[in-house]
Amino acid sequence: MAEIDEDPVVAQPEGLRDEDGELRRDFVQDVGRAIDAGDADALRGFTGDLHEADLGALIEALDADQRPRLVELLGDDFDFAALTEVDERVRGDILEELPTETVVEGMRELESDDAVAILEYLDREDQEEILDAMSALDRLAIQRSLDYPENSAGRLMQTTLVRTPPFWTAGQTLDHIHDIDDDELPDSFFEIFVVDPAHRLLGNVFLDKLVRARRSVRLDDLMDSDRRRVLVTEDQEEVARFFERYNLISAPVVDEADRLVGVITIDDIVDVIREESQEDIGALGGVSPSEELSDTVLWTAKSRFLWLFVNLLTAFVASGVIGLFEDQLQKMVALAVLVPIVASQGGNAATQTMTIAVRALATRELTRANAMRVVRRELLVGCLNGIGFGVITGIAAGTWFGMASLGFVIALAMLTNMIAGALGGILIPMVLERYDADPAVSSGAFVTTVTDVVGNFAFLGIATLWFKLW
Predict the structure, then answer these.
(1) What is the number of other CB atoms lying within 10 angstroms of the CB of residue 331?
(2) End of a domain among 258, 284, 310?
(3) CA-CA distance, 452 to 455, in Å (whole number)?
(4) Among 5, 24, 256, 428, which residue's Cβ finds the most Cβ atoms within 10 Å?
(5) Residue 433: what are its φ and ψ, rounded to 5°?
(6) Distance set, CA 263 to CA 156, 273, 443 (Å)
(7) What pLDDT score does 129 carry?
(8) Same domain, 304 and 384
(9) Of the residues 254, 284, 314, which one is the last residue of a structural domain?
(10) How confident is the model at residue 10 (pLDDT cuts 50, 70, 90)?
(11) Does one domain contain both 139 and 183?
């Protein structure tokens, strides 16, 4: 777990970032030259005051062959927590190049959740090699977290915390905290946990309440016995919602028997929120959730191929609809000119609705209880926009081709497709969610198909009937 800074403004080394907050190119170049020259002293001068997040950004900005060399040159002065700030592939490449002894030594200073974040994406063989070189106590704590499901609370939590029995007084507890070695305390913590002899969680006492209490007051009189807690197997996305719902800065983690096994803090949740939002944004564009800027060209092309192939198939479906009206298009060329407008505008409207729907489903704002109200809302929005853009498009098309009736036809088709887009954009994500399919990943292709097919068929079908083009 990264230490949480108390000050809202963090002082940065002069010249580190430009006015846009990006690392300065000359700074990165200076660091690169120091690495190439093997100048460890100069390198320590450049990186000695860097926060782990800035050091992680610097690592990603360096050439691939310079990254492990940076770690080796800094030696004990390298903060391995910086590896939690870089892409998964970058982190894996660095760890593969470093000697096992260097990795083990660097991870000794980390909280258990940071150690797990570094190790969890490595191959099982690499994990075991590093774990085998650790002390038995460290290995047990990290292995226990790795045994929990991926993306669960057990992977997020840190296991270093302060436990006390309920009969201790505030004074005894404070003396106990003062007597604990720094290595056995978390880097930062906000509460102590009261447990029974079986380590079942009884409650908690926040530090501000503890230090203000009289030394003679017992913890069972101070503690909050209704402390909100997280199950160790809970999905990290649900944990993030839990923190948001109750405005938490930390939460105890318990197993099925309500035994205290760890604690999750807000800095870990911020990372989860960022990760989940990036995945949802990528999924809407058909991009793999695991894709990073550091991925190879071949891997990236392969990961995007399937989505593009699906969209190609849907494009053929839409084109097939146009093919049904081949004779009509030959009789009236204006239809061929205008048909993409209807489909495109309907697709844009559907994408807007779909984006809102997917976000609302992800945040649990859209539920069965309010589904019909939201559907009616989107239907009315589609109608209003359909009327507005139908009038605009109709006037433009009628003026362009000198046919008022053509303007009426395209206006009616525009209204039809905007309504279809609104309904498709809201109903398709809801149906996919109902059948446990990720609406962020799957909605786009279906919604695009609906608006293309409906738009093409509505415009060409209405035109065929109106102008008697059969």
Answers:
(1) 12
(2) 284
(3) 5
(4) 428
(5) -65, -40
(6) 9, 18, 36
(7) 85
(8) yes
(9) 284
(10) very low
(11) no
Q: Which helix (H) or strand (E) holds 205?
A: strand 201-206
Task: Give CA 214 to chain center in angstroms.
Answer: 44
Q: Does a structural domain hold residue 56? A: yes
Using CA atoms, how far residue 311 sits from 121, 208, 271, 448, in Å, is 31, 56, 32, 8
CATH number (domain holding residue 449): 1.10.357.20
The CA distance from 424 to 444, in Å, is 10
**Interval 200-237: pLDDT, tens:** 999 999 999 999 999 999 999 999 998 899 999 999 98
Residue given tokens 């498009």 in the structure block: 393
Co-location of 332 and 462 in the same domain: yes
> Are residues 258 and 404 both part of a single domain?
no
Are residues 113 and 1 in contact, defined by beta-carbon separation less than 8 angstroms? yes
> In the 8-state DSSP scheme, what is residue 81?
G
- What is this structure's pTM? 0.69
- For residue 334, the surrounding DSSP H or E stretch is helix 333-362
The rounded mean pLDDT for the chain is 87
Q: What percent of the chain stands above pLDDT 90? A: 49
In-domain check, residue 20: no
Least confident of 10-14, 44-48, 242-246, 286-290: 10-14
The single-letter DSSP state of residue 84 is G
As given in the structure block, the two tokens for residue 186 are: 């978390």
Q: Which amino acid is at 385?
A: N
Residues 216 and 275 in one domain: yes
Question: What's the farthest any 2 CA atoms get from each other in the chain?
Answer: 96
Measure the CA–CA gap between 146 and 144, rounded to whole angstroms.
6
User: CATH code at 133?
Assistant: 1.25.60.10
In the 8-state DSSP scheme, what is residue 197? T
Determine the structural domain holding residue 389 and report its residue range: 297-467
| Per-residue pLDDT reduced to its tens digit, 347-369 | 999 989 998 898 888 778 888 88
Structural domain tally of the chain? 3
Residues 333 and 461 in one domain: yes
| Sign of the four-CA dihedral 31, 37, 40, 41 | negative
Look at residue 11 and tell me if it is in a domain: no
The dihedral region occupied by 286, where left means phi > 0, alpha psi between -120 and 50, and beta the remainder, is left
| Sheet (strand 191-195) strand order | 163-164, 191-195, 201-206
In Å, how far from its chain's centre is CA 55? 22
> Distance (Å, rounded) from C-alpha 183 to C-alpha 12?
27
